Structures are given as C-alpha cells and as structure tokens.
Protein 1
Amino acid sequence: MNFKNITLIYFSPTGTTQTVLEEIAKGFDKNIEAIIDITKLEIRTKPAPEFKNDLVFLGAPVYAGRIPKDAAEYFKTIKACDSLAVLTVLYGNREFEDALLEMKNISIECGFVPLAGCAFIGEHSFSNDEFSIAENRPDMEDLKKAFFFGKQVADLLNNVENLKDIIPVKVPGNFPYKEGMADSNLSFINVTDACDDCGICVEACPKDAIDDTNNYSTIDKDCIFCCACIKACPKDARVMNDGPFKDKTKWLYKNCAKPKDPQLFLA
C-alpha cells in the first residue's frame, strides 16, 4: 500500500518520545516529509495540519496513565482522510495504563486508521541522581526494537492493498479512562543559588511556566511536572521540593526498579 508522505508529530519535554519515534520511522527507510514538535507552545497554538493518503506517527509520554492534556488537545484538532497512524507512548517503567488506548481513540476520531501502536520505556521524568528510575532508557536495545518495529509496520503495509482491509490495531487500556494527572498549585521546584540566569529552562519548558523576571521561579498553576527544566539546567540549579512528588519519586525508585520491555501491537 502506498502513501504520500511520512509525518512525525510528538510531545516530548525530555526527548525520549522523540528519540523512539524517530527510530521507528527509520525502519521504514523512507524520507520524513515533516516533523511537528508540539512540545513547543508556539507550535501548539498554530492550526493543526490536515492529512490525506499519508502516514503519521503520533507520540507522547505517559503522565499518570494518560497522555498529557496539551498533547491530547492538539491531537484532537488534527483532520485526517484515508491516512494511517502509528501510535507511540513512552512511560517511566511503571505502567502505561490507558494512554495508548486514549491515543488510539483520538486518532480514530480524527479520521485516521491506527495501524500499529507501541509502549516504550523512557527514563522517568522524576528520576534523579539519588533516585534513578529507568535511567538511560531508551537504551540501545530499546532503539533496536524500535527500528525493527518500524520495519514490521513497513512490511505489514507492503502486504496491504486497500485501506479498508486494515482493522484498527488492538491495544490495552480501559474506558472510561483513569483520572490521570490532576492540576495542582503545589510548589514543585526550588531554584538554588547555582542559577546563573542562562534562561535554558525557559526554552525547555513546554508550558511557558517559568518566570524569568522572578529568579526563574516556576509558575505553579501552569506546571505539568514534566521536569524538562530540571533536566535541561546545565548547573543543576533546579531541584524538586520536598513533598508528595518527592515521596512519589522514592516510591517509584523502590517499586519500579525491574526493567520492563517495550510492548508492540500490530493491526
């Protein structure tokens, strides 16, 4: 089965979703027509593209068993006709729960036929030097599996003559979905004296939630706890405050240490 273009669309604050999605696409051995990084707020405020006879890779991390609200809201505005979707979620070695099913259902509502789906492991956004969770994932073995998965999807397409022959991929998950990440005004991040006002955290934040006029403090009501600013800071000047999120980090470190394998699903 032929399609016009390959497009990647991803929300990837710490880069792991982007890494896996790009590796899967390499398995197709075809040129990528466009990459739309919706991590950037200015991209999410632009109209979403329309697709016809295309292949689109959609990717997002998992936050508390769901895809992030900002990613979901953008995905829902995409319009597709006679186009296929390959779905990818990245989770921090706990569970991906309803995230992949949520992405599948959104893609169908947009007009896609979801051909394949996968759940890969990425270093948890809460992971740090003291409490490492899925450290350095995706690793080389993960990326090999991602590349091979891309080849599997490409082979599947080569054996399909008509879009109507494809039954949407079955993926795990429950509906109604679990509640997911709740909004919170908790003070999540502390800025230490090591901050040198470089502004890299501002560029890294997908929510414009850092106040560069006030010691680069986090605007708590807008923070989605992705920790992109923490991981991007070259001076390690941004640290997680004591409280429920640090307690959750310790729990994850203790209970999610055993490495999990990617899960792959084909139509």
Protein 2
Amino acid sequence: MLLQLFLVSAAGATPARAQTNLAGPLVVFNAGSLAKPFNELLRAFKARYPEVTPAQENSGSLEAARKLTELGKIPDVIGVADYGVISQLLVPQHAGWFATFARNSMVLIYTRESIGAGEINEQNWWQVLLRPGVRSGRSNPVLDPNGYRTLMALQLAEKFYRQPGLAARLERAMPPRFMRAKEADLTALVQAGELDYSWSYASIAKATGLRYVDLPPEINLSDPSLARWYRQALVRLPGASLAGGDSLEFRGEPIVYALTIPRQAPHPATAHKFVRFIFSPAGQAILRSNGFQLLDEPELGGPERPPAGLF
C-alpha cells in the first residue's frame, strides 16, 4: 500500500514562492533499507515544494522490480539496495540508465537480551548462531537483496574461517518460519525478543540503535578492494527471473545502492527534481545521517545517459 505523505513544511525550508512551480504526485518505490532515509528525503522535498504530494512504497528490491515488470505499476523513481536489480531486470525495457548513490555493509543485529549477547564478536558469531535455542532470521532472497547477500556472507564465512560445510549449517539454523520479505521486517522481531539475531545492514542498526556484530570485511560485502574475494560467492534464485528466464544469478560484490527514473514514469519532471535533490548536499546529508556510506560521485550504468543536469 502506498504511504501518502501529507506533511507540513519544515522550519527553515526555502519558501515555496522561491521555488520552481512544481505540483502533483511523486510516486517512489524503494528498498526496505531505504524506507527511513527516503521518507526523510520526501519530507524535505515536500518542504521545498509544498504542492507536491509524495507517495512512498517500501518493499524488497526484487519485489519492487516485479511491480514494474509483472504488475505494470510504474513509479516516478525506484531506489534499490543492489544496482544489479536494475541492470539485470529493468534495463533496457523499463529503464535506460541507473545511477549508484551509496554503500552499506552486512551486519548481525541483536539486543542485550539475545542469547550470547555478552560474548558475541566478529570471530565467534557463527558459533553463537549454531548454539541450540538461538533464533536467527534472514530475509527472502527471492524478494530482497539482503536475503541473497546473507547467503553470500555465509559462503564467504566458510572460506574465511576455513570451516567446510559452515554455510549449509548456518542456513539450516535459520528455519523458514524466521524468514521475512525484507530485512527491515525482521528488526521489530529482534526488538521484541522474538529473534535473537537477524541479518541486516549497518545503516539499519545505526538508525535503530540496535547492537550489531561488525563482521570482518571479508564477509560483510562492504570493501571495494575485496571485490575479487567476494566474487567467490554465488547465489542462484530458481524461478526468480523477471525477464523470462528460469532463474537469476548474483555473484558476490561490494554493496552498492542505485536508483533510476523508469521510462514510463508518470511524473518525470517531478522525478528529475527529486533525484537532483537526493544528490544535493541536503539530500546527501540525510543519507549520511542514516548510516549510509556515500560515494564520491555517482557511477552511471545502462545503454543511455540520464537527462542532462540530473547530477
């Protein structure tokens, strides 16, 4: 369901009369881990353009792409937790270009009441997760990049700790009843004590104030210098293809978020303004305050160049 954002202008916002005349809807689909920062971005954008009516829809990135490719629901802007979702599933039919805008890292979130909370660290976390009675969760890899990145992290941990069979053991320790559509859905379960640990992102851990295990860079998919090491991990998602194939394949690589304006965006002028705002100093400050690692400059992909002046 779209979350309509009927918001008042923020204190200190640029007066509407000083802005270009911009009005009407702005529909944004975004990854679950972008729910809070994009909500804040839309609030700030609304403050600058009071006649704009933002609507935000949060879901796993793969699920968001499926809304375009299978349901024909076209937003003005789509932001995903893995640029590969756009490059593999939306380009070229539904989008001609994409731009990267942030990095993140995989973490395990928990609370002080979690089993093993007083001793878990970046070296023994896998031993804690394998203890009897420990409840750990992950998101659905068919819907959400955090889900397939969790499987990648398990594969990399097996190699890093030199523990044959570790990935399969850890996956078995996360039964289907502890799986949710996106990583953000698991946060509440950890906070409520229904899960001891959940695979998530550093940005979510920082935004919620939850404790988290800062995993070694060889496992957390955060370090561009370890790109070759990450490529040892491979996840195939049978039946997940949105482009007519039998499956999707994702190789391990550093986490990179991306966005695009779909070809059939219903309100392209407003979408262009919003994307420009995301890459403005004010927009970048919002992303930074939500725990994201910002890129020095966006990297562009796809067969076409984005509209002039967008970045």
Protein 3
Amino acid sequence: MHGRIAVINNIVPTIMCGGSGTRMWPLSRTMYPKQFLSLVNETSLLQDTLLRLPKECNQSILICNEEHRFLVAEQARSYVQNPAIILEPEGRNTAPALALAAIQALEKNKDAVLLVLASDHVIKDTEQFHKVVEQANQLANEGKLVTFGIVPTHPETGFGYIKQGQKLDGFGYVVDKFVEKPNTHLAEEFVAAGVYLWNSGMFMFKASRYLEELKKYKPQIFSQCSEAMADINLDMDFIRPDKDAFMACEDESIDYAVMENTDFAVVVPLDAGWSDVGSYSALWDITEKDENNNVIKGDAITVNSKNCYLHSDSRLISTIGVNNLVIVDTKDAILIANKDDVQDIKAVVKMLKDNGRAEATQHRLVYRPWGHYDSIDIGERFQVKRITVKPGAKLSVQMHHHRAEHWIVVSGSAMVTINKETKLFTENQSCYIPIGAVHALENPGKLPLELIEVQSGSYLGEDDIVRFEDKYGRVE
C-alpha cells in the first residue's frame, strides 16, 4: 500500500491553460477565454479541472500566456497549493510547452509523472476518471507514453481518432495509429468498427521518458527548451523561461513531435462523460434541459420554443416559436445562430478582428489583478467606467499624457495619491486627477472599493498609461 501511495504522489498534474475559445464567442474572448468561464456550474472550467484531480497528486504545474497569468493565479489559488505557473513567451504548441513542464517537474522529483490535462474539458464521472488515471499511471511508470482515448458515443467529425492495436496485459492498448479528423462516412465506419477512440489531447508519462523521446525525434525543441529553462526569471508566482531560446522552437504538437513516432505510445479508453465543450451545441448536449429541451442560463422566457441554448448575462431574452437556436446576450454583443451552424462563429470573430473591433478580444467587463472595471459609456472625448478594487489591492503608480480623470467613491474607502500628496476618500466623496499628474489608487479597507471614473481628453486608450511602480510586476 505504501508503495502505491508513493507512486501516486509522483503524479504532477500539468494543466494547459492556453487557447482563445473563439467558437464560444461572445462568452469566450481572447482576453477571457472559456477555461475561465462558469459554463456548466458555479465554478470555472479551469477550477473544475483542478477540483477533479486525485487528492494524492503532487504540486501542480499550470502553463499559460502572459495575458492570462493573473486570471490563472487567481482562479487556481483556492484549489491547489502553490502551483508552479509557467508563462510561455509565445504559444509554440504542446510539444515545447510540455518540455518546459517536464524540466520543471524533474527539478523537484526525478520520478515525476506528468498528468497532462486541458483546462477547458468536462468530465462528469470523477470516480471513473480517477480509476483510469491510476491504470495509466502504472503504464507510465513502466516507461509508456499514455494517451487517453475517449470511448465514442456517436460519429464525430470534429475530433481526431486513435486506433487501438494489440491489447496490453491488464488494461490499455498499443497505439496502432493516429487518424486526422474524418469525414462523416469515415467517422461512421470508425464507430462501427469498435476499435477507434476519440483523441482527447490528455496524456500521462514520466517526465524523463517524454524528454528522452523528444530529444530523439525533435532534438532542436529539446535543446531550446532546456536552454530556456536553464535561464528562468522568477516573477512572484510565475516562472518565465528565457524568451529568445523558447521563441526559437518550432510550433509542434506532442502528437506530431513524439506520439506518432515513439515505440512507447499506448492508449487507455476513458468512458467518464467527457466533453471538450468545443461549441455551443456541445455545451447544450451536456447541460440540463427543461421540458422543451431548452438550456436556459440567466433571465429568459420561452413560448413554443424548443431545443435552444439561451444565455443572458443581464437582460431578458424572450423567444416565440423558435427551434434549434443559440442566443447569447452579453453586455456588448448578441449572438443568434442555428445550433447546427455554430462552427461558423469563428468566421464572425475573424471579421471582428479584421475590422479592429474590441469585441473580438475583450468583454466590456475587464479583469485586472487588482479587481475589474466595466466600461459603462464611451463617446467623443469621454469614457465612464465603474471600477471595483479588491481589499488590500493597489493600482499602479501611473500617469496619462492625454486624459484627465475624475473619481467618485460609491462605496468603500479609497487611498488616493496625486503628485505625492495622499488623501483618504470615502462614500460620496470625489477627486480630480489632471493630465500628466502622477497618481495611484489603493483600497486600504476590508470591503471592495466601488467607484465611478469619468475620463476626458483627446485619447482614451488603455495604452496611454505610463507605469512607474506596480505591485503586480507590470512595469516595463
């Protein structure tokens, strides 16, 4: 029994937190993608991923980009102890990312086994998931590179497939081959054959074995990632690999770089209510429905409406005599789509990006490490925001070249510094920050600080911020 616990304790959950989730726009956007959203229950998909980890696992590693680092840290804080958060200088796909994680894991434990999971999947049967992870862990400790294959429930053209080869003793199969996303006819054949599994993108292997195989088949990626991790910069909770070394890596998935080449690839079937939540139709499939087969999130009234997905952040949605629609209402955008055509949402996002529209990348409600702000109104030479600052948090010491600001405290206490003069403001009090004034805002209280900010000037962009000091490391 003690030996088994020791082996389980070698497991290092490795969570891939990248991805922009464009197929779930307008809920999911580049700066706040679906892994951070509460789509299925009250917790986010990332938090659900952390909650389903076996309790005996070792310190978790989370891999994300610079823009999402504070979101990852904030959401992970209550669910895992002191996670190692690796910041990719730029996305280079899964093979280099997992090399960084493997090198980091080996720093703490030479026998570390990486349990590689996506941050935005749903797995309903946690008990079955743990059982299959335990099986995969045994194979990983034998030197195998394990991938989890999802037992298919229908012919699916949106996933790659894995063909099972020779059965291993006990459980699992040698990987016969990986198959790209098939057409409908091939997908039907695969499901009927009974030897094909969906490729989940989840893996389990010893960190040392993965690096051995990566070095064998992609020596350049191995050497560049090794160089990047040999010169890391520790920034608060974050691990920053050397940018120049990592940027030299080619963009390559673990499937192409290692799994399709290695002699040690095996697959274990997983039948535990898995979904990649890759579209609104997939989300509709896994979510509880009313008597008319509608999924309703938020305020909605339906009359003679069936098979719909309705989501409202604030306003009332009312439908009459509609069928098979997706209607998503956010503070700054509305999506109306046929549920069978939701794959084309990516085309809408591309049009938004091509036209330079902010709705492609961020919500009206924007999160910052100190709290968040909501852009209530914007017009010629003015903008109004509602700002929420968490207890004990402080915005950077900064100035603006093109705008002045007026702050009105709605609730809480605001410690305001303007050109080295500091003063406490409370409910219904206000202050004015002229153009060019060096200023800072802090919440010294134990309750959230709510204030209204009125900006006025010739240019109101977020890039008109010159930071002098910042407790979150955002000074260039």
